[in-house]
Specification:
422 residues, mainly beta, four-stranded antiparallel beta sheet, 1 helix, 37 strands, elongated
Amino acid sequence: MKPLLRHLSHLVISALIGPLFIGCDDEPPTGTGQGGNYPPVAPANLKARAISLTDIQLTWTDWSGNENGFEIWESVGSDTGFGLTERTGPNVELFILRGKSTQYAYYYLVRAFNVHGFSNFSNIASLTNQWLRFTLRRSEAPYLAVSWHPRGYRLISGGGDYRVRIWDPSNGELINTLKRHTDIVECAAFSPDSSAFATGSEDGLVIVWDAVYLCPRQLLMNNGAVTGMKFFPDGTRLACTHGGVTVWDVWEGNPQCEIESETTLRNIEVTSNGRTIIAAGGNFILTFNADDGAPIDTMRVLSGGINCIALSEDDRLLVAGTGDGKLIYFEYQDGWEYDQTVQAHEQSIFSVDISSEIGYIVTGSWDWTIRLWNLETFALIRTLSDHRYSIYSVAFSTDGNYLASASGDRTIKIWGPFNAGD
């Protein structure tokens, strides 16, 4: 009875999961089985990993002693719609797939076959999931902003449900939810000394929160929706974009400097010496004196508009992500000079960050992908594509070992650990 029950179980499960697959053969390949008049047992422990920029290695455990071989099924971009891509001989537990592209996410299944039928499918293995550590949910609206605690102890997020969430990135657990904003939370930032963090919203309000007691220290009202923010290196001031720029004293709650601009400014950086503000919007990147707001320089970008900027820790490199998917590099010598442009994505880039610690640039795009770039050569290192909608925010941990991404699919994903040269 056991062989018959096993065969019936296989038929029932295959009927249930059949809609997931395309191009399925009704009959197994012909050949001489290795013993037993029943289908083989399913392989297990399927794993996938990239062994080069174009080759993927699959490994699995062969639990059967009567298979004629194995079938490898593949899906590109999602864990549904699998199709047969390769067949192997018997007693195989490793197979290398050639000619793959790192721009896509690959998902795999394996099953055994003999003259009596097919085994059940193995577990699903994903190439991208080797870097995916946690997926954080808890929201019915898109996540739009993430920021790391300077020592990596906490992660804060904001999004379309007006709430600020505090996460433990070591286990993916939600610690607290804060409900003071009355509109979409667009941006967030930790202070350099980790004693406070700030959140900015389309309600025009910036809230400076105590990082220990999770209560507001300051409520700072701006002249429009707050779309970007950056603490100064000493942690005493906070620069915010809301069409223009306001520099706030975070202890006294007073504006120290206000900058008006004909260009709607949405993104902001502050140099490591705290003397210069870099703000971007439309087709312009503008620099200002941080003390009095006096203009220093203007850079015009001929592209689909600037959505995001990031500054390296040594203030040497500035990168801008554009609405037409370009990553534009500027290098500082006696002033900012255009370096080069890379077509980084097929669609708009919404967020960019730099980790000088591991020498990576990261971009998040409307095309649902995250891409890692070499900081020195600007070459593509890897594509992460587990999100199911646009990526609105990406941020490296201070040491560069981990990456957080916020998406319109209502999830935050934590990736890593990364190391230089991975």
